[in-house]
Structures are given as structure tokens and as C-alpha cells.
Amino acid sequence: MDKLKITGGARLKGQVRISGAKNSALPAMAACLLTADELFLQNLPMVNDIRTTRRLLHELGAEVEFEGSSSARLKAANIGSHEAPYDLVKTMRASVLVLGPLLARTGRARVSLPGGCAIGARPIDLHIKGFEKLGATVITEYGYVEATAKRLKGANIVFEKITVTGTENLMMAAVLAEGQTTLVNAALEPEVTDLAELLNKMGAKIKGAGTSTITIEGVSVLKGASHSIIPDRIETGTFLAAGAMTDSELELTACNPGHLTGIIEKLREAGANIEAGSDTLRVQGGGALRSADVATREYPGFATDMQAQYMALMTQANGISVITENIFENRFMHASELMRMGANIRIDGSRAVVAGKSRLTGAAVIASDLRASASLVLAALVAEGVTTVDRIYHLDRGYERIEEKLRAVGAQIERLK
Ligand code: UD1
Known about the structure:
- The protein is about 30% helix and about 25% strand.
- The chain is built from 14 helices and 25 strands.
- It has helices at about 20-30, 50-60, 85-90, 100-105, 125-135, 165-175, 190-200, 235-245, 260-270, 305-315, 335-340, 370-380, 395-400, 400-410, and strands at about 5, 15, 40, 65, 70-75, 85, 110, 135-140, 145-150, 155-160, 180-185, 205, 215, 225-230, 250-255, 275, 280-285, 290, 295, 315-325, 345-350, 350-355, 365, 385-390, 410-415.
- The radius of gyration is 21 Å and the shape is globular.
- The relative contact order is 0.15.
- Uridine-diphosphate-N-acetylglucosamine binds near residues 26, 94 and 164.
């Protein structure tokens, strides 16, 4: 298993090009199942979740050819299988995103139940209820959820709780349904809007994506399209935190500052010096950081996917900060590893209380999930001495060449095979 070895204290300086958004690329790739024609996707991040999705799509009968460093041609001329097997779903929960398109295109889909993960229970009951509203019969047995339908029929679906992949899955099912579907209390995340744009290019009739009510007029067939994935706002936020924590000057390019309003506001409140251009961000560290409370919320609130990195930042801020996690029930696994590096953190249910500023020192730490890994890398960048981060397969799921990007701007970081 690969590890990262990081020697803290280096000053970072230079440009970092932000990759395409993993969470936008995954549903976009699944959307290839909706048409027999070719999808051409650009600005894909070459991370392990994208490779896992390619394997999954292959299993289902689609051809996925990567081109250059960030593009892919996807074509599902025929669907050969209806099943997303356990060994793929267990490594990537987003595999459930094939349910909606498979069901819509072929009337049948069987996907292993994802079960819980390091950050919480994460059920898919809201996806299932939505498919049932569209007229599908859904059976859950032998660890699989199996949905069948002759042709889906448009319906009014009210989400009890806001769900990102749930909104995406239902949107992909409804585009080929008969009649109109309304999704109420839909997720507002930019990744949902990006998917709606792609689907509309394919001939879908979706209105209101990016608001809480999305209407979809079903069509009988979709065609191929070409689409460029939006920049990864969480990778962007992670590098902003890196710049703010270290005595650094970073310019982030190919990003979309408009997707990070909540994150940028909070980092500025904490004393970070950030300037936004149209598709660039500049962050300058070195000044004193101050504590600022944060509570994670659905978009446009502060992203839960930035909570772990923000906690690392708060260990370097003067004062007491309270971090409240509202989206997932168990997303503080990074706290105990940060404490082993010298952070002063107390967990109280869904709240973490961080007292700073702490002197962090290098240690051997273990990554528990994707964003937790990023928070440990951030802490290691400011820690005295050497940190090794183990189980970075989590990091490789969602960050494209993070050690190369950090090394290029001066970090002392290497991958140990
Ligand atoms: C997506 C993101 C993930 C991010 C999360 C929240 C992708 C591939 N992943 O995950 O990085 O952290 O949004 O921004 O885009 N819930 C239910 N029943 C359901 C569905 C969700 O109870 O059927 C709950 C979840 O357990 C969680 C909350 O709703 O507590 C939000 O989850 P959701 O938005 O669905 O997260 P994902 O789409 O899985």
C-alpha cells in the first residue's frame, strides 16, 4: 500500500492547475448509459474513482476510451448486463448512479447495496422511493437492490432530505420517462447543474437545475454530446487551505471561484488572504489566522467535503473554533489523527471544538476516508519534521496527482510505494 512522506515547513509558491470535479465526472460518465450514441467528456480528473467507473461501465457493456490526459469517449451501443456488482460498489458508493440510467434505458437495474462507510450509514432509501414514484418495482434482497419497470412514468417527487446523488439519479431516470417529473427539495450543488447541462445537450428537457425545484419533460430517446466537466471546488478549497496555513503564495488556475463562495467567505473570516479572478484564485499565507466557527450545510453552505481540511486549518488559528457537522453522522475520524500530531480537539457529538494555535509535529498517521486524508496532508505541511500518511488509496480516489501538484510548488512530499 502506498504512503506519503511529507516533511513540513516548506514555503509553497507558484501555480496549481485545478482538475475537473470528480463528483461531476461520475454522474456524467453514468449518463453514457442513457444513449446508444457517443459521449465525449473533457476535463475529467484521472483519479481512481474514474477508473472504477470505467470498469463498472465496461461490465455493463459500454466502451470507455480515455484520450490524452483528461478526456474520454464513452459509448453504450448495447447494454450487456444490468448489474453493478458488490466488489465495485464497495470501493465506490457512487456506483449507485448507474441505477437511474439503466432503469430508464432498459427497464431493469440491479445494484449491490452500498452499506455504510467510514463517515456514516449513508442509506439510498430516498433514491429507491423516487424510483418507485416513477413507477418502478424495487426489491431489496440478497444484498442487492433490483428495480424494474416497463416504462417509467413522470411523477412529483418530494425529497424528505436533500441528496446530491439522489437528485442526480432521479434526474437521469426521469429524462427518459413518459411525461413530466418534478423534483422538489432537489440538491443545488453545481455538480447537479453540470449534469443537467450535459443531459440537455443530449436532448433532455430539464429546467430549474440549480434551484430546489427541477422539472423534467421526458423524451423517448437521447443522443450523443460533448461536454467539459466543471472544476473541482473541493480540490480548489483544499489548496486554498494549504496556502492559508503555510507561509505561501499560490495561484490556482482553471477553477470556478463562484462555486466556492461559502468556503472563501469562511477562509477570509479566519484571516486568509484570498483574491478571486474570473477563473483564478490567489491565496497568500503568513498572516495570523483566527478561529471561526463553521457548520456544514448543503450547497451553497459550507461543504461537508471541506470540513476535515478546515479542521486542519483551525489547528493553526488562534482561539477556539466550533465545527459542526450537519450532513454525515460520523465524519470526525481525522480528529484523532490530528490530535496525534499535536492538535487540541474535543469531539462532542456532531461538534468538534478546536483550540489553537497548536504546534504540530510529524507522526505516522492513517487516512480513514478521502477528505480526512487531505486534512492530514495539510497538517503535515505545517508540522515540524516528517509525517507519513498511510492508506492513501483513499486520497487517490479523488485527488489527481496531489503529491506532484504540491511538490511542483515547493512542498517536500514523496510517495513511498
Ligand atoms: C455526495 C458527494 C459527497 C458529499 C455529499 C454531501 C458524490 C459522488 N458524492 O454524496 O462527496 O459529501 O454529496 O455533499 O457526489 N441520505 C439518506 N437517504 C438517501 C440519500 C442520502 O438518508 O437515500 C442522507 C445521507 O446519509 C446524508 C445526507 O442524506 O446524511 C446527504 O447525503 P447525499 O447528499 O445523498 O450524499 P451523496 O450523494 O452520497
